[in-house]
Amino acid sequence: MLIKTHRDGFMDRIPSEITPRAVYRDRRDLMRLMAGGVAGAALASWAGRQAQAQMPGKHAAIAAARSALPGAVAADKVTDFKDASSYNNYYEFGTDKADPAKNAHTLKTTPWTVEIEGLVKKPAKYTLDDLVKLSAQEERIYRLRCVEGWSMVIPWVGYSLGKLVEKVEPQSSAKYVEFISLADPKTMPFVGSRVLDWPYAEGLRIDEAMNPLTLLAFGMYGEVLPNQNGAPVRLVVPWKYGFKSAKSLVKIRFTDKEPRTAWSKAAASEYGFYSNVNPDVDHPRWSQATERRIGEDGLFSRKRKTLIFNGYEPQVGQLYAGMDLKKNF
Ligand SMILES: Nc1nc2c(c(=O)[nH]1)N[C@H]1C(S)=C(S)[C@@H](COP(=O)(O)O)O[C@H]1N2
Ligand SMILES: [Mo]
User: Fold this and answer.
1) In a domain, 65, yes or no
2) Rounded to the nearest whole angstrom, what is the distance from the C-alpha of residue 241 to the centroid of ligand 2?
């Protein structure tokens, strides 16, 4: 005879403002699709995720990934999930760091398709499920350094963008890749404002896009991405300033010309195409020599020395051999 369990009672204790149950169901379903990687087996509950975020290194998957952190600095500690999901830049939902977490619940992530177009032999329109299943998911812990001077350490879930690039077979004339975010005025309250020229657009040279560090991310902290972090799929380019990592991607286009980007259109002298993290190249209005690690320093103090290429020089330095990084900022 079946004994009645208190499973539902337990579920009800998960605070609804953190993970509404219906959303949790969708997320869990998507997580099932993330076959192969640690993510599928990782903590599926809010409580577990919290524990993981608060005890970096205690969780086996996190510990394993941390030891593999390229250019690992002994003191690199995974940022609390709470900080990483409540202090965001996502201008489609407002310009204040607290706005995206407040407003991005309106983002509709199902159904979702990503179109691959331009100079490729196999243009395609992927449903999110097909994109998720294209390659095994991995957990990668990367430092993310924002151009404004703060940084975080985030365990992402995804796979190298290069896997997708290989699949669509770029033509030999393809030299750049352009990334376009969703711009839906119905669900994104600041699309329509003049703060940026929408849609948000970014770009990489094709060899940068193919570098194994460049990640197509579907999740973080063993869960699918929170909306404010760029659900359902985003780019993560850890050696470049955070704005290169475009969120909520709907289009990836291969081109022969360097694409204009949303930030270079807004202020070309301040935000270059390359935007590699570089302590020796100042932003015209502030120094980039130091940074504040969210969660460890005082709110405004910048205690950490910023590292060239955000600490990933061994992996990406050769991409810029012979280039003047001051000119190509
Ligand atoms: N579509 C879109 N992508 C975006 C942004 C944005 O405003 N819109 N902000 C960028 C900036 S400035 C940063 S620092 C990172 C922040 O990512 P996070 O919120 O996951 O830390 O997202 C980048 N991607
Ligand atoms: Mo940023």
Assistant:
1) yes
2) 7
* pLDDT for res 221: 93
Is the minimum distance from the CB of 200 to ligand 1 under 6 angstroms?
yes
pLDDT band at 25; cut points 50, 70, 90: very low
CATH number reported for the structural domain that contains residue 263 in this entry: 3.90.420.10
Conformation bin of residue 322: beta by default, left when phi > 0, alpha when psi is -120 to 50: left
Between vectors from CA 193 to CA 189 and to CA 199, what angle results, nearest 5°? Answer: 80
What range does the domain containing 85 cover? Answer: 15-273
Question: Is 220 contained in some domain?
Answer: yes
Stretch among 71-85, 167-181, 303-317 having the lowest mean pLDDT = 71-85
Give the three-class secondary structure for 60.
Answer: helix
* Digit-coded pLDDT (tens) for 174-203: 999 999 999 999 999 999 999 999 999 999
Q: Region 53-58: what's the mean pLDDT?
A: 40
Which ligand minimizes its atom distance to the CA of 90? 1
Q: Is the CB of 229 under 6 A from ligand 1?
A: yes
In a domain? residue 327:
no
Please state the φ and ψ torsions of residue 34, each to the nearest 5 degrees.
-80, 70
Task: Find the ligand nearest to 107 CA.
Answer: 1
Give the chain's domain count.
1
Regarding the beta carbon of 151 and ligand 1, being less than 6 Å apart is answered no
308: in domain: no
Choice among 6-20, 88-102, 195-209, 261-275 with the minimum mean pLDDT: 6-20
73/323 Cα distance (integer angstroms):
27
The pTM score is: 0.84
Q: Whose CA is nearest to atom 20 of ligand 1?
A: 229
Q: Is 250 exposed, middle or buried (0-12, 13-18, 19+ CB in 10 A)?
A: middle
